[in-house]
Design a protein that fits this description.
SH3 type barrels, six-stranded antiparallel beta sheet
Length: about 220
């Protein structure tokens, strides 16, 4: 009799423990689901209209995004964002895209907020390779008015394949004060010293010249 009672008591204890474990697991799962739900909405303040009402009430989010001109332009001016940061924000959501539309018109009281300059991106649907895109950009740049050529002052201004003008060397090996069209073929900087950087170039007629110093190369710029 006592033995049966002990078995019954043990069975009830196991059942109670199982229920407690199940309840704890359910609560933990619910908690995890709640955290997961929160993580699925990366921008509560900007895109609150996309958040379900129950989750919005839970996190005390508001549907009020603020006035574009009175609030968000002031925020932009205070943060003093770079063009690169503003471009990233523009791709993030519709709100920042609308802010950039206002800045493009450039009719506001914040003199530090300039319109976004023209830009492009890669991969690009119209160009298969990066070289094709750069060729197009170089042609557009060459067609701009007020093109001037200036002597390079830093090696970072030049890169492989860049169109430049370099001093011409005649058949006797004399360097003339005459700059002719060429391209950068190779950058030589074995000592990691900018003052010792030289460039191998290819002239448009096919002639080559090695170890050209920086002050004998001109790059194309736009005078405004």
């Amino acid at each position: 009799m006592n033995s049966n009672g002990n078995h019954s008591q043990q069975g009830e204890t196991k059942q109670s423990t199982a229920q407690t474990t199940t309840t704890s697991t359910t609560q933990a799962t619910t908690k995890n689901l709640s955290i997961t739900a929160l993580q699925q909405h990366p921008s509560f303040f900007v895109q609150s209209e996309r958040i379900p009402k129950d989750l919005r009430d839970q996190t005390l989010c508001s549907n009020l995004r603020g006035n574009l001109e009175k609030h968000w332009l002031m925020i932009y001016a205070y943060l003093d964002l770079s063009f690169a940061d503003r471009l990233k924000l523009r791709w993030m959501c519709r709100l920042f895209h609308k802010v950039e539309k206002i800045l493009t018109v450039n009719k506001h009281r914040y003199v530090t907020l300039m319109p976004m300059p023209k830009y492009t991106y890669f991969p690009h649907p119209n160009y298969v390779s990066l070289n094709e895109l750069f060729d197009e950009l170089n042609e557009m740049h060459a067609a701009l008015p007020y093109i001037v050529w200036e002597v390079c002052t830093a090696p970072e201004m030049l890169s492989g394949g860049k169109v430049v003008r370099a001093r011409f060397v005649n058949s006797s090996g004399r360097t003339l004060n005459k700059f002719v069209p060429a391209k950068i073929n190779q950058i030589n900087n074995d000592d990691n010293d900018d003052n010792k950087t030289t460039f191998d170039i290819v002239y448009d007629d096919g002639d080559t010249r090695k170890n050209v110093p920086l002050n004998e190369i001109q790059r194309r710029t736009v005078s405004v």
